[in-house]
Structure formats: structure tokens, C-alpha cells
Amino acid sequence: MPEGHTLHRLARRLDAHLVGSPVAVSSPQGRFAREAALLDGSRLLAAEAWGKHLFLDHDDDRVVHVHLGLYGRFDVTRTPGEGVPAPVGQVRMRLVAEDGPKGPAYADLRGATACELLTSAERAAILARLGPDPIQGHDPTPAWERIRVSRSPIGTLLMDQSVLAGVGNVYRAEILFRHGVHPLRLGRSLRRPVFLAMWEDLRVLMADGVRTGRIETVRDEHREELEALGAAAGRRRRSRSYVYKRTGEPCVVCGATVRGDVLAARNVFWCPHCQPAPRRRAVR
DNA sequence: ATGACATGATAAA
DNA sequence: TTATCCTGTCATA
């Protein structure tokens, strides 16, 4: 689940249900117990996201930095009347607002790659290493300045959080498909209008993701065909993407067989017809 | 029961 | 490049 849209959605949910009130902080699993004890009873002032990072501002210049990594979750639940249930599984951090903005609520963090107590100065240091974030409507210029001179593949640059923040493997695959760009094209071979169109598209798609909580990249006109192709391929769950995890299945647009490979330890997917391979650089 | 895998990132080699 | 961490889910046995 966790690409940038997930974290922004989370910031929004925390803001709606927990921010502004005193929170009980605990670590049922124990790995955040010392910090939780320090924070217990503090007031949660704000929840903010930048790319895939989430920051919880508590009073007294204390910031909880959360990064969900590959499989972390942070579930925010309202508990009108019922009281808070016993923790299930490995709950690293639990926040409970008895008197949240919309009534009692709690949030359980599991599996995060980062859950740490920082100062606001330390948070600033993390932000300084992140590129612009499409979800925040940032100016894409700093990202473009990196890409236009880079000898790295655009598929790698899109995932580099210091180039731009928030894009993960699904949005990467899908945005490249939607713009007919092969993942191995070098950054410096891209034309500016193409990158700016990708950025604008990311801005819209990821904003949708914040609203719906899921990554939807397939245009209405292709939904039915995708469904039919999925059924024909005998897949158990229907796909919601053009190329992501569709290796070996036909492209919805042109029928070519979607390809998959590993780039920088991550799976990449593309259509060999809609996303023509770059001319191989002369090697010698 | 066991193992592979995942929408991530880092440190070491 | 590889190993490693974090946890849950799904497929296979």
C-alpha cells in the first residue's frame, strides 16, 4: 500500500481524528516503549506528510517520524462508545485520543521501517534530502534539473526520493506506460514537455489516490477491456493497472505482451510496443 | 507448517 | 550488486 498517496491520506486521517487533543502513546510490541513513555499524554499538534515520510508533531518540539517501508501499516479507527480493543499482532505504536475532534479514536502502527522520536531540526534534515512532492503541488523544476542531466534510467530516477518524493513502484510503472516512456530511457534523453506532462499526471493521479486510498491509473475507456483480458488470462484478482504485475498478459491498448524485469532490485513492467526501447548506446 | 513475496530504503562490499 | 530489516498474506505442501 505505501506510496506517497498512502502517507498523505494518513496525515489527513490523523488530522481529522487525533490532532488537537492529548493522546495516550504506547508500544504494545515494546520496540518503541521508551519513546512512547516520554510522549504519553502529550498533545498532538499536527500530522504532515512529504513523499513517503510522515511526521507527527507533538508539543515540546518532539516529532515522531514514521516511514512505512514496504509493508508497514498505520490504521486509524474511530471507537464511538466502544473503547479501544486489545492490540492485534505487532503494534509498534498505538495512539489513543479519548476525546478526538470527531470523538474517540485510535491509531495502530505495524511493520514500519522507521518509527523514531526526533526534534524539529532532525525532521528538517530529512526533508532537505527529499525532492519535490507532486501531491503537495510543488514546483517540478528541481526534479527536472536533476533528470535532464542524468545518465540514469528514468525508471530509476522516478523512484529516487531525492529527485522527486512519493512515487513508488506502482506509480512508476503506470506513469511511464501512460506517457509511452520506456523505463530504461536515460534521464537526459527525455524532453522537458514529456516530463512535465508526467508530473502533471502524477499530481492528478496521486491526488485521486489520497482521496480513494487506492492507486487507479486505468482510464475509463480501458476498464472493460482490462477486465476481459484478466478473465481470459485466468487471473484470480482483477488488475487495476496497465502494466504493473501484468507480465505476460496482453497490453490493453495494443495487445503486445507486457514485459517485466528487475531494475535496481525492483520489478519493472512495460509494454514493448507502447513504450519503445531506447536506442542502445554504442558500447565499446 | 513452510516459504515466497510485497506498493521501501539502507549499509556494506 | 547483495544482504538486511520490518510484518502480513497468499500459495504450496
Give the helices and strands, then pairings:
Blueprint: H1 4-17, E1 24-26, H2 33-39, E2 44-50, E3 53-58, E4 62-67, E5 73-78, E6 93-97, E7 105-110, E8 114-118, H3 120-128, H4 141-147, H5 154-157, H6 169-178, H7 192-212, H8 220-232, E9 259-263, E10 266-270
Antiparallel strand pairs: 1-6, 2-3, 3-4, 4-8, 5-7, 6-7, 9-10
The structure holds a DNA duplex (13 and 13 nucleotides).
Summarize this structure as a short list of keywords or feature phrases.
alpha+beta; DNA-binding; 4-stranded antiparallel sheet; 284 residues; 10 strands; 30% helix
A few lines on this structure:
The chain is an alpha+beta fold and 284 residues long.
Unreliable runs: none
Mean pLDDT: 94
The spatial strand order of the largest sheet comes to: 1-6-7-5
Shape: globular
Distance between the termini: 42 Å
Continuous helix count: 8
**Fraction of residues in H or I helices:** 25-40%
Rg over C-alpha atoms, rounded to the nearest angstrom: 21 Å
Structure classification: alpha+beta
SSE run: HEHEEEEEEEHHHHHHEE
Characterization of this structure:
The chain has 284 residues and is an alpha+beta fold. It has eight helices and ten strands. The chain has helices at 4-17, 33-39, 120-128, 141-147, 154-157, 169-178, 192-212, 220-232, and strands at 24-26, 44-50, 53-58, 62-67, 73-78, 93-97, 105-110, 114-118, 259-263, 266-270. The strands form three sheets. The chain has a four-stranded antiparallel beta sheet. Helix 1 (4-17) packs parallel to helix 7 and helix 6 crosses helix 7. The protein is globular. The structure holds a DNA duplex (13 and 13 nucleotides).
